[in-house]
């Protein structure tokens, strides 16, 4: 068990570009979550999947954000036409049903 | 909307001192979790409390869930520099939607 892996760890992009992040959860976990966190604050919920089904999306997730989890394994989070306000740490976590989360190390996005 | 309020937001103490962090809500939570996060890393689960009035101990850390399941506290005895980090409480809503709602966090600095 290698834990939850996120790639890349850091991403610097120009405003208006598209970015995609990947998350590989713990293989036995059926739930996968995406959160966004700014410095010194708690994580904010974005969306979650149970297996391959996206069960809930936050109102924070504008039309520029899309997430997928094909085949219920890894997940991707894409941000189109990035804005400076998108700069944050994007955290992925997985769990087995309602259990405790295991978080990845996050992807730090900087939009310049 | 269920919210979790943590206090204090910042705490700077000397090694050896005791401290308590509070996590409060006006809503009932089916369970509460505490996480610790170091800079540049994802949060790590410390404990889950489920039953009202429950007390759990993890070495020098004592966690308590309020009788009404609306609040929780984390007490650290004889704090050490290695305890430095961001402490987050998080709760599953009463509808058990699967997502966790996080407090804004308490940043703890323990000076040697």
**Per the principal axes of the C-alpha atoms, what is the gross shape of chain B?**
globular
- The total count of helices of chain A amounts to 0
Number of beta-strand segments of chain B: 11
Spell out the helices and strands of chain A N to C. Answer: EEEEEEEEEEE
- The share of residues in helices of chain A is under 10%
The shape of chain A, in one word, is: globular
Q: What characterizes the major β-sheet of chain A? A: 7 strands, mixed
Category by helix and strand content of chain B: mainly beta
The average pLDDT of chain B is: 92
State the helical fraction of chain B: under 10%
Query: How many helices of chain B?
Result: 0
Defining traits:
heterodimer; A: 112 residues; mainly beta; seven-stranded mixed β-sheet; four-stranded antiparallel β-sheet; 50% strand; globular; B: 112 residues; six-stranded mixed β-sheet; 11 strands
Describe the structure.
The complex is a heterodimer of chains A (112) and B (112). Chain A is built from no helices and eleven strands. Chain A has 112 residues and is mostly beta strands. In chain A, strands 2, 4, 5, 6, 9, 10 and 11 form a seven-stranded mixed β-sheet that branches. A four-stranded antiparallel β-sheet of chain A has the order 1-3-8-7, with no helix packed on it. The termini of chain A are far apart. Chain B has 112 residues and is an all-beta fold. Chain B is 0% helix and 55% strand. Chain B contains no helices and eleven strands. Chain B has strands spanning 5-7, 10-14, 19-24, 29-37, 44-49, 55-58, 61-65, 71-76, 85-93, 100-102, 106-111. In chain B, strands 2, 4, 5, 9, 10 and 11 form a six-stranded mixed β-sheet that branches. In chain B, strands 1-3-8-7-6 form a five-stranded antiparallel β-sheet, with no helix packed on it. Chain B is globular and about 40 Å long. Chain A binds chain B through residues 4, 31, 33, 35, 40-45, 48, 50, 55-56, 91, 93, 97-98, 100-106, 108, and chain B through 4, 6, 33, 35, 40-45, 48, 86, 88, 90, 92, 96-105, 107.
């Amino acid at each position: 068990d290698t834990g939850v892996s996120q790639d890349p760890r850091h991403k610097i992009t120009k405003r208006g570009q598209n970015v995609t992040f990947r998350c590989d959860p713990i293989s036995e976990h059926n739930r996968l979550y995406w959160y966004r966190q700014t410095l010194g604050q708690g994580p904010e919920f974005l969306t979650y999947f149970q297996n391959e089904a996206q069960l809930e999306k936050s109102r924070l997730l504008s039309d520029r954000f899309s997430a997928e989890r094909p085949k219920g394994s890894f997940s991707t989070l894409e941000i189109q036409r990035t804005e400076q306000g998108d700069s944050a740490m994007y955290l992925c976590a997985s769990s087995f049903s309602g259990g405790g989360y295991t978080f990845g190390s996050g992807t730090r996005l900087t939009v310049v | 909307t269920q919210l979790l309020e943590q206090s204090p937001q910042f705490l700077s103490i000397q090694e050896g001192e005791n401290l308590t962090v509070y996590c409060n809500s006006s809503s009932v939570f089916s369970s509460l979790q505490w996480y610790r996060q170091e800079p540049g890393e994802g949060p790590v689960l410390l404990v889950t409390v489920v039953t009202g009035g429950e007390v759990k101990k993890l070495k020098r850390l004592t966690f308590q869930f309020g009788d009404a399941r609306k609040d929780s506290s984390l007490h650290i005895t004889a704090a050490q520099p290695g305890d430095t980090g961001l402490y987050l409480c998080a709760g599953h809503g009463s509808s058990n939607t699967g997502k966790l709602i996080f407090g804004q966090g308490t940043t703890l600095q323990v000076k040697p």
